[in-house]
Amino acid sequence: MNERAPTQCEGCRSQIVIPARLASSRLPRKMLLSETGKPLIQHTYESARTARKPVGICVATDHEEIAAAVRRFGGQVVMTDVHASCGTDRVAEVARAMPQVDVFVNVQGDEPEISGPSIDLAIELLEHDSDAVMATLGTPIRDRKQLEDPNCVKVVCDRLQRAMYFSRSAIPHAREWDESLLTGDPPVYLQHVGLYAYRRSFLLRLAEMPAAPIEKIEKLEQLRVLWSGFAIHVAVVGEAAVGIDTWQDYRAFVSRATAR
């Protein structure tokens, strides 16, 4: 049964946590790739640090190589349990040791071009929506190939901009397709941007919740929240940072970074 979330927390204390692991099936040791002269994790850290609202930022990792890289560029690092099954568990581990923080923002370590304003926006959603326990972002999908790509996670929202469902399928499904569905304003289709802000009390609870049936099918952890009856507020941003999953992604990032 759903429980009412904490009241509004205008000016609440927030903390960015960047969970980072060394192993990666598609791009081994990607957090330490440094063809730009900096390891990938440093780029993400420096981009996230441009957010104005958080009072702190740290990397949560279970591997000393990543920890050493973070210390070398002067970043804060927290060593977490090697048995943590996912990034959320690492963020929750940090949260347990920071009772003075109200909101934790989970920034993926492989998003070196994350926008500071996007992080601030996710925090603001929780500051002003007392019924939401989590906040995240979506960005318009304007390409049908992207819409049909199962690696592109879609989100559908209600009139209050609360998430109704996340899926790897194209949702809402068009019974009769029309290309104008890709150009609508407001947008019909939204790609979910994998940045999360959590109220601390809910984050600690989430880490203890069993996986939901629909989560197991879609392989999307955020569905555990909806299945349990909690509200996730979604803000729409014009464009999203590109995550680094493959060598092609990384080469493209290096080209952009060196051209600046």
Task: Please outline the helices and strands.
Blueprint: E1 14-20, H1 40-48, E2 56-61, H2 64-72, E3 77-79, H3 87-96, E4 103-106, H4 116-128, E5 132-140, H5 144-148, E6 154-157, E7 163-167, E8 190-199, H6 200-206, H7 213-218, H8 223-227, E9 231-236, H9 247-259
Parallel strand pairs: 1-2, 1-4, 2-3, 5-9
Antiparallel strand pairs: 4-8, 5-8, 6-7, 6-8
Helix pairs in contact: 3-6
Task: Briefly characterize the structure.
By secondary structure, this protein is of the alpha/beta class.
Describe the structure.
Helix content is 30%, strand content 21%. The chain contains 9 helices and 9 strands. It has helices spanning 40-48, 64-72, 87-96, 116-128, 144-148, 200-206, 213-218, 223-227, 247-259; strands at 14-20, 56-61, 77-79, 103-106, 132-140, 154-157, 163-167, 190-199, 231-236. α3 crosses α6 (200-206). The protein is globular and about 55 Å long. The termini are far apart. Mean pLDDT is 92; it is low at 1-7.
Tally of DSSP β-strands? 9
Taking Cα atoms only, what radius of gyration do you get, to the nearest Å?
18 Å
Quick one: biggest sheet? Answer: 9 strands, mixed
The span between the termini is: 50 Å
Helix content: 25-40%
Which residues sit in consecutive blocks of at least 5 with pLDDT less than 50? 1-7
The helix tally amounts to 9
> Which sequence of SSEs, written as H and E, runs from N to C?
EHEHEHEHEHEEEHHHEH
Structural class: alpha/beta
- Give average pLDDT, whole number: 92
- Into which percentage range does the β-strand content fall? 15-25%
Shape: globular
